[in-house]
């Protein structure tokens, strides 16, 4: 039965495609250009609706896609959608004339038109543009999906985002809000003297994060290059060069799995401030996210997946070991020996890679047993040095570093450090990463000789932070999946 239904749907679609091409031929035969030219819009649908008193009785020029038509003899009502929303059209035979009315009757749902007409309100109270002229600007050869049934397939929505945007106003609003969030992030940092910069997307070394990179080949130089996995090391080179406050908003690429929280290509914001530390970065993060929420959402209290979240600072600071005691009942006052940590993790059912270091075991315990509890904004601070190769060691606990991660709604949004500026310590960390990489850890960082040389010239003490922009957009748009906030997420090819 299912195969028969699919065959019937395919046959119906083919018939619709045939009919639309027949209409295309009819239009051409009438001398109508089905793919028109420039059309000057003088008003948007939303403006006309919201400022009706100013537009009433005046002539406007609107353009957009037809989403519905309702014909009553020699008059037709239609819904037109532009970038701001929808407005009703009223097309009368005795106003536009026979030729234009016949043209309008040939139009299909999905066609793009330009209309000049007068704004009025119908007896039913609907704000409407009564057409004086109608121009076809683009003939649609495929029918739009039926609103409630045609877009149920979530993956189809991601694959054909253009249809998703046409049919779903909430999706359009999500991406307008995304742009507003990015604009607000830039404005916040610009106002505090940070300089926005651009750094290379391809580099001979993939470093700055624990991630497997994508590799490509430059034929002219006969050189393998990696798509960047982080923005960190080039930005810290700029601190060496005297650019004391820098940030970059850019795409990064990690060759990892796909989930509701992960896409191989995503957007990061990284900011670095000379003469600061991770405490300064905590304050900067609090102020920045509150500022963005107030600008974009209008308040500090947001709702995410049914839960109220209060962004009002200050946010709690919770040490990694304290968090393990509180949420997992692990009584460690200092980092345990590897075997003890391994045994505890196994007892708690935590899956580990063979040979995982103490730091990686602690990280796995945090992910499984602590992070889901961090629903309200919380800074998790002071991570093991083994999983923080670019952060400064704590003076009173050298096996830990001055590092924090910010968690909201159980997921990490920000990772930040007091930046390591000791080139000798950094060399030893790079060597340890190189040994791990040689031992099969594909996410261990590569040895970056050029960055090490830059550190030897002297980098001022600094604080740095990296924000997952897509996850912030998820939070401020109540989106359940990262694919809902990326216009074209990575998907497995069809077929």
How would you characterize this protein structure?
By secondary structure, this protein is of the alpha+beta class. The protein has two domains: 2-144, OB fold (Dihydrolipoamide Acetyltransferase, E2P) (Beta Barrel), CATH 2.40.50; 167-316 and 376-484, BirA Bifunctional Protein, domain 2, CATH 3.30.930.10. 37% of the residues lie in helices and 26% in strands. It contains 16 helices and 20 strands. Helix 7 packs across helix 8 (169-191), helix 8 crosses helix 10 and helix 11 crosses helix 13.
State the strand order across the main sheet. Answer: 6-10-11-20-19-18-15-14
How big is the Rg?
Answer: 29 Å
Helix fraction, binned, reads 25-40%
Name the CATH superfamily classification of the largest domain. Answer: Bira Bifunctional Protein, Domain 2
CATH architectural name of the largest domain = 2-Layer Sandwich
Question: Unreliable segments (pLDDT under 50, ≥5 consecutive)?
Answer: none
Q: Could you say which overall geometry the principal axes of the C-alpha atoms support? A: elongated
Round the mean pLDDT to the nearest integer and report it.
94
Distance between the termini: 23 Å
